[in-house]
Structure formats: C-alpha cells, structure tokens
Amino acid sequence: MIATNTIVYLDNNSTTAIAPECMAAVAASLQDNFGNPSSKHRLGEAAKLKVLAARAQVAALVGATSPEIVFTSSGTEAIHHAILGALALCPDKSHIITSVVEHPSQLALLQHLEGQGKRITYLPVNTCGQLNFDDLSNAITSDTALISLMWANNETGALFPIAKAAQIAAEKGVLFHTDAVQAVGKVAIDLSQVPVDFLSLSGHKLHATKGIGALFVRKGRKLPPVLFGHQERGRRGGTENVPGIIALGVAAELAMTELKLQSEARVAALRDSLEQKILALFPWSSVNGAASERLAGTSSICFGGIDADLLITKLDKAEICVSAGAACTSTGTEPSHVLLAMGLSPEQAAATIRFSLSRYTKMEEIDRVIEVLPELIDNLLAEAA
Ligand code: PLP
Fold this sequence. Notes:
By secondary structure, the protein is α/β, with parallel strands linked by helices. Helix content is 41%, strand content 14%.
C-alpha cells in the first residue's frame, strides 16, 4: 500500500482524492443500499430514493432541475451521448463545430465520425488558448447539427466564455454541448441562465468516485439513448451505479458549499504563489495561458528546455505528483495538442508541467515544491550539458 499522507498531490485535473464525506456515503451505501433501484421491494425503494436525492444534488450544483440530469459511467460517456444524440436529433445535418483544444475523449469520437463522413470544424485558439467568436459565427451553416466546446481546459485551465458561445448557437438555432468536466464544482454554473442544451460532468474530477458521470439534457430536448434500457427513464440503460451516484450527489453538495464560501479564491492564491515563486526562481520559465481567465487551481508551466517527463520522474521520487499536459494522453512522446495549438513549439510543449491544485491543497505543499525544484532542475540541466 502507498502511504498517501506524505505525498504532495498536485495532479487534481487527472483525478481527485475522494472527499471523506463521499467515502463515508459510499461505504454506507455498499453496506445498506445494495438494492437495485428497479426492484419493487424495500431495498430497491431505498436505493431509488438515494438516487433521487443525488439527482437533485447534482441538478442544484449546475442550476438545473432533477429530470434534466442523466447519470452515466463517466464524463466520456456523457460527451459521447451528447454528440451522438445530437446527430440523431438532426438526421439531415452532418456538421459539428468544436475547438482544437478539446479533451481527447471528445476528439477521438469526432475523428471517428469524420471517418464516417461527418464534417468537423476545429476552431483555432490564440496564444492565450482563447477562441475568436467571429470564427465560431462564420463556421455555422445550415448543415451544422451541434457546437461542442469545453468550459474549462484540462491542461491550462483556460475558461471558454461558454455563455457567449451558447448564446450564438441559440440565436442560430444550433444545438450546443459543453464538456464541463473540469469546470463543474470549480466555477459557478447556472444553467437556468446559460442556454446550453447539453452539459457533461464527471465524478472523479470533483472528489467523488471514478466510474460516475452525468449529462444535463435541457427540458424539451428528446435526446435518444446510446445505451438502451428502461433505466434513467429510458435515456440510459444499465443498472445504476448507486454508490457512485450517491458519492456524486454528496460531492455536488460539498462543491456548492465550497463555491458559496469562495474556496476557489484560496486555491487561486496558492496557485499564484506557486507561479510567482517558480517565475522568480527560473526567470526563463513561463505560464501557459496566463493572460486568459483560468480555473483557480490549474497552472501549466513551461520550464524552458527541460524534459518534463524526466522532471516528473524526479518529482515523483520526491513524493510530488504532477503531470505533463493531460495524463490521459501523455505517452511521453506526443507533444500536447493544446499547447501546440497555442503556438508553443514541440520542445516547449515537451518542457511543460501541469500543476493542478484542489481545495485540499495546503501552502506547505506549495512550499515543498518550491523547496525541491531548484536542485532537481539543476540536476537535469547538468545531466543535459
Ligand atoms: N473532458 C475533460 C476536459 C477531461 O479533463 C476529462 C478527463 O480527464 C474528460 C472529459 C473525461 O472524463 P472521464 O475521465 O470521466 O471519462
């Protein structure tokens, strides 16, 4: 077993530690709520009530209503459901607009659809990782079935102005999906005010368990299922992951409290401190997307000509966990598509480390990084010389 209490965990965009409250709720659910929510007896009813309660908690976090939330197995499934469902809703249309910096879980599906004859427009971003809204408006045609843009970028934390993009889509009568996997629980989201049709989220990015996600489907949108079955009112087949759903509900409620307490401001202060100290220690380093509005806890830093993979290994030996770009895709050889799209060279992308904090991150942990980094970087520079 790995002793996690000494580990400095700054890889929260890859996955988060489960909140103690979620862990307790999962344990209680495994013990007491093992019934199938479809069963008509007391254990089934009890599980069904827990699922209902969690649905209301998740809905409240994003300003939705309970019937608008469909539980899925992951953010990936929610994204795929939204995209495939939107295409099924618009059988005469075959064009989708997205951006070049989307998560691989979305890009992989879009590339597959391209192979099947769909037309995909990948909007570019500027050096801050931001879209040009004229590009978005100009890309929309009468053949456009869906616009799908992420709320927050997993690598840089850059926030797309989703309210504005969704408004453009609504004015042109085009369906709009947002991958809000990295945003939910970290930025205030009120879907009663933002005209998105579909929104995807994932439990393990907000201190719930892995294997649970949700898709918001706006009332009135009859999104066909991808998995057929009677569960989720016919919208997503498969016996519900009751412990995961309960954990997501608790995580949503915790996140709401933290948003009200403005905990993200504290996280942003830690992130700023980390960045300022790194920039002071290594004046040749730079923060990717620094000029963009960003998630409070994400910092993507380019360490000049350093090999990020080697630095990650050295940091790991010092019990500090970070990522290079997105962990889901980092094979160690492919430069990040997000950083390349922002104009970084392959060398700069390969020299970039992503630090991602959470509300559990402490100042001592930032101090620990700052304490060990100079020696590790000196070693790397000496080894490379
Ligand atoms: N979208 C973004 C922006 C992500 O960061 C991730 C996971 O890293 C996903 C989608 C996929 O979510 P999941 O891991 O729940 O499938």
